[in-house]
TrEMBL record:
NCBIfam families: gcp_kae1, T6A_TsaD_YgjD
HAMAP family noted in UniProt: TsaD (MF_01445)
Transmembrane parts of this sequence: none
Claim: Iron is one of the keywords in the record: yes
Similarity comment: family membership: Belongs to the KAE1 / TsaD family.
Compartment(s) of residence: Cytoplasm
Gene name as annotated: tsaD
Record protein name field: tRNA N6-adenosine threonylcarbamoyltransferase
Organism of provenance: Saccharomonospora piscinae
GO molecular function, one term: iron ion binding
Positions contributing to Fe cation binding: 115, 119, 309
GO biological process per UniProt: tRNA threonylcarbamoyladenosine modification
Reaction it catalyzes: L-threonylcarbamoyladenylate + adenosine(37) in tRNA = N(6)-L-threonylcarbamoyladenosine(37) in tRNA + AMP + H(+)
Length: 346
């Protein structure tokens, strides 16, 4: 069975096609993404109206590219999955409307699904079925959460989250302070390779004895970086961009991996999945690999292309819902910009 996935929650128009095999494994056939990120770069963040219009223009061509790549015809599709939330309301509506039209025209079931659960489900395309339970560290532009995943199609429970900024948001804000382009993750990752991670001792938020063990905070770190850079500029010094980037990145990776490994160990869970855009970070992957090996935890991180927003993640989640025999959504299903991760499909 072929499942089509449509993603439009932020600034990527994504269309994925996967094959659901009889044994429940899911195979990636096409993953086409059109991004409007360049149009947002000069604003330093995503402009909702610009994103919605870009989705409108890109949606149909992206669908056709996906079918061309996979060598499939639309009549081969047996279900359509689409991001119903969380995300930007106008952006979500474009994908949802398109997916409804395809599902109705092809007379196949529609699954309105959770974008965050999709970020986790995508890992099965690369590493096969998720052991139950698994622990997921979801680190993206809008979210930073530790999740217990008992069943990717049925039960996801939040055990911790950021109390302020998301990890990706901190990357984007620190990039701005360092005069690096938006989105900030990739340029900071690159700059950090030339710097020393121990050059500057930036704070590790929420790691005090009284702090919640599985929650995160990144706004203090972001402010500390901004203060440090301002102080250097006030002294008339050149800002050592590589050292600041490396030291900031180290603080983020340190806290994320320490808490994830601790949560896995304390809950007796043997598999950690790290996903979402920030999971593309090279230092996070390296430190997680080291700490998981020390703790005897299996680590799974999808390749960078699958970590950032795409349609394949939505198709993968849709395939798992089909495989589990979950009820499809009504054709009237609406977008929910604040959909909680525990609601996997609507
Ligand atoms: P959400 O999934 O929470 O709705 P989103 O979809 O906008 O948010 P993603 O596309 O999953 O987020 O991730 C985008 C974020 O990932 C951006 O903040 C970006 O800076 C960050 N990012 C991308 N690549 C890297 C990298 N190599 N290192 C660190 N951060 C990165
Ligand atoms: Mg994006
Ligand atoms: Fe995302």
């Amino acid at each position: 069975r072929i499942v089509m996935g449509v993603e439009s929650s932020c600034d990527e128009t994504g269309v994925g096609l996967v094959r659901l095999h009889d044994d429940g494994t899911v195979e990636l056939l096409a993953d086409e993404v059109a991004s409007s990120v360049a149009e947002h770069a000069r604003f330093g963040g995503v402009v909702p109206e610009v994103a919605s219009r870009a989705h409108l223009e890109a949606m149909v061509p992206t669908v056709h590219r996906a079918f061309d790549t996979a060598g499939l015809r639309m009549s081969d599709v047996s279900a359509v999955a689409v991001t119903a939330g969380p995300g930007l309301a106008g952006a979500l509506l474009v994908g949802l409307s398109a997916a409804k039209a395809y599902a109705a025209a092809l007379d196949v079931p529609l699954y309105g699904v959770n974008h965050l659960a999709g970020h986790i489900a995508v890992d099965t395309l690369q590493h096969g079925p998720l052991p139950a339970p698994s622990l997921a560290l979801l680190v993206s532009g809008g979210h930073t959460q530790l999740l217990r995943v008992d069943d990717i199609a049925g039960k996801i429970t939040e055990i911790g989250s950021t109390v302020d900024d998301a990890a990706g948001e901190a990357y984007d804000k620190v990039a701005r302070v360092l005069d690096l382009p938006y989105p900030g993750g990739p340029p900071i990752d690159r700059a950090a390779r030339e710097g020393a991670p121990d050059a500057i001792a930036f704070p590790r938020g929420m790691t005090g004895p009284r702090d919640a063990a599985y929650d995160f905070s990144f706004s203090g770190l972001k402010t500390a970086v901004a203060r440090w850079v301002e102080a250097a500029q006030a002294r008339g010094e050149d800002v050592p961009v590589a050292d600041v980037a490396a030291s900031f990145q180290e603080a983020v990776a340190d806290v994320l991996t320490a808490k994830a490994v601790r949560a896995a160990t304390e809950s007796g869970i043997g598999t950690l999945v790290i996903s979402g855009g920030v999971a593309a970070n090279s230092r996070l992957a390296a430190l997680a690999a080291q700490r998981c090996a020390d703790a005897g935890i299996e680590l799974r991180i999808p390749r960078p292309r699958l970590c950032t927003d795409n349609g394949a993640m939505i198709a993968a989640l849709g395939a798992h819902l089909v495989s589990a025999g979950c009820a499809p959504s009504a054709l009237e299903v609406s977008a929910d910009p604040a959909l909680p991760v525990s609601t996997i499909s609507l």
